[in-house]
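Ligand: S-adenosylmethionine. Inputs:
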Amino acid sequence: MVSSDVGTRALSTVSVETSFVHKVYERISSVYLGKWPIVDVMFGPALHPGRLKAIKRLAIQAGDEVLEVGVGTGINAVLYPDDCKVTGIDLSVSMLEGAQRRLERHGVRNVRLKQMDATKLQFPDESFDLVYAPYVISVVSDPVSVVQEMYRVCRKGGRIIVLNHFLSERKFLARIERILSPLTVHLGFKADLDLRALLVQAGLCPVSVEKVNFPRIWSLVMFVKD
Ligand SMILES: C[S@@+](CC[C@H](N)C(=O)[O-])C[C@H]1O[C@@H](n2cnc3c(N)ncnc32)[C@H](O)[C@@H]1O
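Predicted complex:
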């Protein structure tokens, strides 16, 4: 039975600790980074339109300071214009090592990488013009803290974008996603993260929510800090 109280209900049927997520990504990093990067090959093209739309919505200006949360293997690094400065953070050292190799391979010079937990960002308030979390929020242990931290480190008037799959609004699909979530969590993500409850519990109101990718089961959620 799922509680109907959006302000207090669990965001997912599964709850995980940061140490669990860390272990999962250290273990599956070889699947991302091995000789055959299965994840990028299988999911890269399907998830790419959302990444391109997010870059467009960020509307990056020359000189902007951008924070990418959960940078993973750095798949987004080549999409940023050369004239902005990007800081990419991730919990997993193995994923960051893969990202570093990708930056070197592609000659990307405007992205710096740091090992950090997104639930406790080590940046002062309002350090960035733009803050972006692609395909990360259903991975982290505490999505409410992560979006609040993203909001905190963004300057007034700056944009914050969360790109992710969330629990379906269709009852049948939502039921399947809830059944799958205890399994998918071992692959690094929850399949049933509840966007409405996340927004209410984080106390944040988006300026837009767009469906992206095909099938259109991913959402691009944009906030502007006031
Ligand atoms: C599915 S990958 C997404 C990578 C990349 N953003 C992309 O677009 O493909 C999720 C990443 O989030 C990272 N992650 C999970 N929990 C985190 C946390 N609390 N703080 C920072 N990174 C975290 C994982 O290590 C992993 O690299």
